[in-house]
Amino acid sequence: MSLLPVLALLAGAAIAVQAGLNAQLGVQLRHVLLGSTIAFGVAAGVSLLASLALPRSWPGPDTLQAVPGHLWFGGVLSALGVGLFYFLIPRMGVGPMMSFALTGQLALALLVSHYGWFELPVRPLTPLKLLGAVALVAGVILINRE
């Protein structure tokens, strides 16, 4: 078995835990955006330290200028998504929020994969994948049923 699916599960678990922790940070500070800012600051610091510690070459000015402008927009989407997580989790709970968020992620991921947007590998939609999406929506309905 490949280690990649295990790492993907670990990443998902880490997101669920960090979302709950950081949402509570926003609640404790009484300022969701400040909690999000602190979380992003810590994440940026850890990422920078890891980048400095790993032996890789840094991109030069030509490489940075060659990056298409729309690729820099991902940080805006990260801030929006994470900010919404921290705002919604104290109101909805981690389980319901994650179930809806995961559904949104997978629905858009299916489209991105089907069309190969952002120069990513094309993975066409199949009837089996669509059945999986329907099962996912049914699971979200069951998870959120009171």
Descriptive report:
With 146 residues, this protein is mostly helical. It has six helices and no strands. The protein has helices at residues 3-29, 32-53, 61-66, 74-92, 94-115, 127-143. Helix 1 (3-29) packs across helix 2 and helix 1 crosses helix 4 (74-92). The protein is globular and about 50 Å long. The chain starts with a helix and ends with a helix. It comes from Zobellella iuensis. Keywords: Membrane, Transmembrane, Transmembrane helix. The chain crosses the membrane at residues 32-54, 66-89, 95-118, 125-143. This is DMT family transporter.
List the helices and strands and how they pair.
Elements: H1 3-29, H2 32-53, H3 61-66, H4 74-92, H5 94-115, H6 127-143
Helix pairs in contact: 1-2, 1-4, 2-4, 4-5, 5-6
Protein name: DMT family transporter
InterPro entries: YdcZ
Transmembrane segments: 32-54, 66-89, 95-118, 125-143
Give me a quick take on this structure.
The chain is mainly α and 146 residues long.
- Count, helices: 6
Distance between the termini: 38 Å
Helix content percent band: over 70%
Order of helices and strands: HHHHHH
Largest sheet at a glance? none
Shape: globular
SSE-based structural type: mainly alpha
User: Poorly predicted ranges (pLDDT <50, ≥5 residues)?
Assistant: none
Computed CA radius of gyration, to the nearest angstrom: 18 Å
Give the strand tally.
0
Beta content: under 5%
Overall pLDDT confidence: 91
Organism: Zobellella iuensis
Transmembrane segments: 32-54, 66-89, 95-118, 125-143
Protein name: DMT family transporter
InterPro entries: YdcZ
